[in-house]
Automatic annotation (TrEMBL):
Keyword Electron transport attached: yes
Pathway: Energy metabolism; oxidative phosphorylation
Membrane-spanning intervals of the chain: 12-30, 62-84
Cytochrome c domain ranges (all copies): 130-210, 217-297
InterPro entries in the record: CcoP_N, CcoP_N_sf, Cyt_c-like_dom, Cyt_c-like_dom_sf, Cyt_c_oxidase_cbb3_su3, Cytochrome_c_Oxidase_Subunit
Summary of subunit composition and partner proteins: Component of the cbb3-type cytochrome c oxidase.
Family the UniProt entry places it in: Belongs to the CcoP / FixP family.
PROSITE patterns assigned to the protein according to its UniProt record, in alphabetical order: CYTC
Protein name: Cbb3-type cytochrome c oxidase subunit
Amino acid sequence: MSDFTSDFWHLYVAIATLVSILACAVLLWISGTTKAATHADNTTGHVWDEDLKEMNNPLPKWWVYLFIITVIFGLVYGAMYPMFGKFQGALGWSSTGQHTAEVKKVDAAIAPVYAKYNGMAPEQIAADAQAMAIGERLFMNYCAQCHGSDARGGKSFPNLADTDWLGGSDHAYIKTTIAQGRTGVMPPMAAAVGGPEDVRNLAHYVLSLSGSPHDSVRATEGKGKWGACAACHGPDGKGMQAMGAPNLTDGVWLHGWGEEAIVRAVTNGFTNQMPAQAALLNEAQINVLASYVWGLSNKAK
């Protein structure tokens, strides 16, 4: 109701709801007081299937009482809770308020569990079996949908268990990314490279950077077009971690491998988004989750 830009709709909903409830009471009153024209045997004269006659019997009292209770309940409920337009009700209840209260209650209950990890270094947390069990559960709930249950990702979703990082790889960077999210953009570069054949030549040059199978003649032609990509991926193709530009020489392909995949990336570009989790996780949970993720690629360190 807070989205209404005019009191008209608030009043419209409130009046329509109130009238609907009162109309039920009026209908009950009319049906109980109206006398139908009947015959001497208390039938209305309506007959179905030759011998099924309609009687003019009163409504069962239990049904009438239940109907009255329903109407009263509707009015009381509308007075106590938000039901009539934007009227908040006497109790001031809202789904947002209830959610906030429940989140605070849960946070207070789990605070002692996470408190012991607040002053610990990432290396210590990653070495703590209980912390890693907690981190794994958090990962399964909030991260596995994209990165997989084994954290090895998939096409367009980074592998978090290797040492190939698009951005920073330290604990602080991982915490920031989990809390605030991250957006990676590869702009369409076909116009800057040239025509379709120039894009294909460039694709073969990119393949050559990682020692992947390629056409050496096309790669030689494409090298001259590399300048359009060097601003982000560097003159040697090893990327720029600060910008989140991937290393194209290591054989790790986030958006698919091969000539067609590279041509598609150069032509269309793409946008990857890691959603922010700060609204779902508190700072202590993010700290443990970040330590878990950090530990996935630092097990041997």
